[in-house]
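Z., the sequence and structure:
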Amino acid sequence: MPDLSEDVMLQYAGTAYVGIVEWWIRNEMPYPPQIMAKQVGTLLERSL
C-alpha cells in the first residue's frame, strides 16, 4: 500500500470533521457536545 501524502490525510480529516459537525447541527444536536467531541476524536484517531 503506497504512503499517503500528508496533504491528502489532512484534507480527508478536515472534510470528515466539518461533515460530522454539519450533520450534528442539522439534526438538532442529537448528542451532547462532550459525547460528540469524544466520538469525533476517536474516529479521527482511527483514520490517521
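The longest helix spans residues 6-26. The chain has one domain: 6-47.

Let me know what you think.
H.
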